[in-house]
Amino acid sequence: MRGGTGRTVAIAKRECSSFFRLPVGWVVIALFLLVSAGTFWRVAITPGQIASMRDFFQFTTFLLIVIAPAISMRLFSEEMRTRSLESLMTAPVGDAGLIAGKFFGAVLFLLLMLLPTGAYVGLLYVLADPAPDPGPIVAGYLSLLLVGCLYLAIGTLGSSMTSSQTLAFLGTFLGLLVLLLVPTMAIDHVPGWMAPVLGEISVIRRVDDFGKGVVDLAHVVFFLSGTVLFLVLAYLSINSRRWR
């Protein structure tokens, strides 16, 4: 057990460090920080209004629709393209450990990318009077982590299904776009019995609650269960390659 866990951790570290050895990793970080900084300045610091990062967290949820596929597109697609996946599948870590290692490596990179945005919080406390409530800020970052995990799990599945990074990116991007926009846009145009269902799968509504400082256990369970579901599907996708 310990050996398997250690190998999974090693895969996660290797995967995370690989982003910093490639230009795409630095480009993703630079673009994210550039766009998020501009957004923070426009929506979080408004003269005459109470300082809040609520709109910043909502916008970042949309921004992750592009960022998450860019992070996850190469997780398995690159291994398939270079034909190195077969050797990884024969390693003693197993398919589940391989999926977990790749996924957590991507999550760690996402956390490192979000880390510099802590400067926005410090700037908000310096410039805002009165100082913002820390509760919604902590809850907002928790929402970004949970949303990021769900998005990256979907991206892991997308990457496990093709050797083309472009197709993995586009498939994940379109899937996330549907997940994020359809429940919100369609809720007023569906039969009454479907509205509660769409409300339950609305990512925007749940992120909005986090932005208010509401950490609802049901929201946490939704994101974690969704993450596990797509990781299981990715496992089945990788495992099916053994029978091809």
In short:
77% of the residues lie in helices and 0% in strands.
Keywords:
244 residues; mainly alpha; 12 helices; 77% helix; globular
Q: How does this model look, in words?
A:
The protein is 77% helix and 0% strand. It is mainly alpha-helical. It has one domain. Helix 1 crosses helix 6, helix 6 (94-114) crosses helix 12 (217-240) and helix 8 (134-160) crosses helix 9 (165-186). The chain is globular, with a radius of gyration of 19 Å.
Low-confidence stretches: none
Count of individual helical segments: 12
Helix content: over 70%
Report the portion of residues in β strands.
Answer: under 5%
Oligomeric nature of the chains = single chain
Total strands: 0
> If you average the pLDDT, what whole number results?
84
Number of structurally distinct domains: 1
Shape: globular
Structural class: mainly alpha
Largest sheet: none
Rg estimate, integer Å: 19 Å
Alpha carbon gap, first and last residue: 29 Å
Helix and strand element order: HHHHHHHHHHHH
List the helices and strands and how they pair.
Elements: H1 2-21, H2 23-43, H3 54-72, H4 77-81, H5 85-89, H6 94-114, H7 118-127, H8 134-160, H9 165-186, H10 195-200, H11 203-211, H12 217-240
Helix pairs in contact: 1-2, 1-6, 2-3, 3-8, 3-9, 3-11, 6-8, 6-12, 8-9, 8-11, 8-12
